[in-house]
Fold this sequence. Notes:
The protein has helices spanning 14-63, 196-199; strands spanning 96-101, 104-117, 128-137, 147-154, 162-168, 171-174, 177-180, 184-191, 208-215, 220-226, 236-242, 249-258, 264-274, 286-289, 294-297, 306-314, 321-327, 331-334, 343-351, 363-365, 380-386, 394-399, 411-419, 427-433, 439-442, 450-459, 471-474, 480-487, 494-500, 506-507, 513-514, 521-523, 527-535, 538-544, 552-557, 563-567.
Amino acid sequence: MRHRTRWDLPGLSLVELLVTVFIATLVFAAMVPLFVGAQKKNVADNLRNIALQIAQDKIEKIRQLDFDQIVADPGDPSSVPNLYNPSFAGGQFGPTFAAVAGTTSKTIHIDYTVSDVPAGSLEGLDQCKKVVVDVWWDPPPAPVKHVILETLIYQQYAGPRIAVFDVSPLEEVASNIVWVTSSSVDLTATIASEDLASMNAGGTPQGFVRFSVNAYNGARVAFGEVSTPVYANPGQYVFTWDASTAPDGVYVFQAVAFSLNRFQGNTVSQAYRVEKGPPAAVTNLAAAAGNGVVYLTWDTSPAGDLSHYQVWRGTAAGGEVLLADSVATPSYSDETVVNDTTYYYVVKAIDELGNASPASAEVSVMPQVMSDTEAPSVPGGFAAAKNGPSQPSVRLTWTASTDTGTPASGLACYQIERSPDGVGSWTVVDGNVSPTAIAYVDASAGYDALWYYRIRAVDLAGNASAYSPVSSARTDPIPTYTLTVRNSHNSSSLSVRVQSVSTGLWYRQDGTSSSSPPTPVEIKKNKAAAWSGLPAGVYTVFGSYNNGASWITKLGDISGGPTTVQFP
């Protein structure tokens, strides 16, 4: 039997086998450069992918910095600019990056270029910054292919953001209505945590918050710049306004933060009615005595939040007690007196919070029987007309009456009445209009109202003239305007709510109102939304770029026509 060795293969002789091995060797030798080239190409592609990822990462991290922190060129030759400083922002930047794969490491180089747009802008006046990131490696592999990415950072994100803005103390006087009632008011601005570095670089406060208080007519009432934060809270800045001499009314409270390099952040504002105390004392109280009646008149209180007047009476000086509450007009007829008795009177003004003014100067008078039995003449030329366009009031005019008694006691007052139909249901508008007046404004008429009016004169003896012919007037409907809110943000949607400053009511886009906040209206980037049919007045517009987690407030004044409020 024949024995085979391991070289004995079926179908191949030893010579044929040697030839086959030789040919395979030649083929392998020819393919080695191809394998090496492919391996080099894979390494270069991997490095380019790593460089691209690094460039994208740096761009995103740069976009998260404060505008004034984006610095690549040293202002001071002895300092290292932020983007080249390996310790800046927790080590997120620097000129190199070590790419590690297994036991090998490759150094990746990073260059940053930051330029102002427009070019040559003064510090703080540049509109945006152009940032270029260039990433590459030292060969091998070669050739080296740079990865270059660029972006524009707009100044609207420049300064520190005020995350929370408070005005205190506030007092809730009705559902959803709060007022400032203190003579000392604190405005508190809290800086967002991510912006504290731009306010307090090096541990020394260098940024500041600018506070202002303005009357709603635009007049500046108070102003201050606070650069020192609260000791226990490095992000909180407080400004105190002394409101002790400020008249009651609506005020706008604002704050804006500036970084150490004077870049301005968002402006926050809130509007509140200020009611810091009781009204001032009533002035020029006067009393006229008639037959079984006393006529009182006084100057209208200047208080912006006047509710009504109180009349106090006594039979001894300083002994007055409350006679009449809820007196709407600056006059009163006391028909409960007894002739030949001396009476003493004072008047107080009451505001909407129930605060009473000091008592007016005291007056005294003695009613008595008079021989005058003739009524005054009827007021002439009586006419009613709306008190100007879009006003909820009616203006009444007439010519003066004369008292023809023998002897004449003198005119005591005019009495004005109104009716919804001119036939019945007459009610007194004012029963003690000054005897020297020849005009009167019915401020309680209301919008879109038709009223019929008449007037008569009364003398001090209590004689009343006949009523004048009836005259009527219709007021205009309440004016309504459109409030437009525009979102000029380039990348984020804005949630918006609208509330009346005066009534506290919330409004929907169709002009309907509610006492509770409606669902916010979402306004897409670079779009606008309109609230139509809103009653003329002042509105607080609440805007949020983070689904209501925090709100920016702005004011929209449509007292005299439509307006647009822009965010941010």
